[in-house]
Predict the 3D structure of the following.
Amino acid sequence: MDNNLYKKIENYVTGLYQTLQDDALVFHNLKHTQNVVDRTKEIAGHYNINEKEMLILYTASWFHDTGYLFTEPSKHETMSVEVMKKFMLDHTNDTELINGIDQCIMATKSPRNPTTLLQQIICDADTYNLGTKEFKETNKRVLKEDKLKIGDVDKKVFYINTIKMLGEHQFYTTYCKDLLSATKELNMKKLKKKLQDIDVEKIEKNKMANPEIGNPMLESLADIEKDKSGLMSKGIQTMLRLTSENHLKLSDMADHKANILISVNSIIISVILSVLLRKLSDAPYLTIPSIIFLIVAVTTIVISILATRPKISGGTFTEQDIHDKKVNLLFFGNFHRATFDQYNLAMRTMMRDTDYLYGSLIKDIYYLGTVLGRKYKLIRLAYNIFMVGIIVSVFAFAIAAFFHHDIATATTIVKGSGSPL
């Protein structure tokens, strides 16, 4: 082994990178080459490599990316071989050695198909970073290099291509398979998570710019038609059906609670008007408590009626509304004035459009929820008024009765003391 040749190779390639320094080579630079050389030594150390084979690997690892300094990335392996041959022919006449280096360098060209152990070692050394924690940083540098070399690069497209590359990539030596495969899979999962984050970020930006665009639910609904098993469709249908049923049950409960309040307070008002008011001439001290009780009952009834009072919209729609998917054909208030032919055509249009159909169901549940929110808010208010009003009315009756009793007692005493014995 000619140690002097090793040093000459290192100095020559280092000099090339320093002399022809390219700021755009953020990843495929001297540092990357030095890392590949170190990884080549590491991997080769686990195999029975002779001195000549080690020289082949060493030279190939130093020269494998020198082509980036002279030509475009897609042709860099061929150029690297030319640079290597020009140097090696000045230092050796061993054609077998030079051909071995040539084959190792070209083995790193994608798609890789190394046929010898030496080619497998150089390929694994070149992509060693894919199975390490440094992948996150090296991938950032590759993206930056692409931007500087190519121009504007869409980050999402870059990540998609990188994930595809990781999926197709394989380590060839058993040493790298055992050492790096698990971390490579983890790196791929992290990259997929980043890709999802980019989609969410893009959707949020689109929603801020235009609420009708980039809705993640609308985008995902398109996948229902692609689901051959039908599980996605069945799951969504079950979810929508149960949600609608729950909302309808809650609406029935709200109406029932309102009816209870209306019935009870109607009875109270009937009693006050038919019985108590007739006796106010004999018991005028009960006038104020009776009025309080009457006001509370009337107020409770009015709020309960407001909670259950139906609201009906125009009941018509246009063809443009159907085209724009604006009208919800599942709610009678939107079509009760339309003709059957109009409604029939609109419903058939909606049933052929997955987004429109499921979007209408979602819209129906949403607006039913807003109605429920208003109902329960008013019913809660009615119950609170009824509860507080009952308490205040009872206290008012008690106070009125108490003071009337005291006045009556005092009057009786006065009258009694003034009478002769």
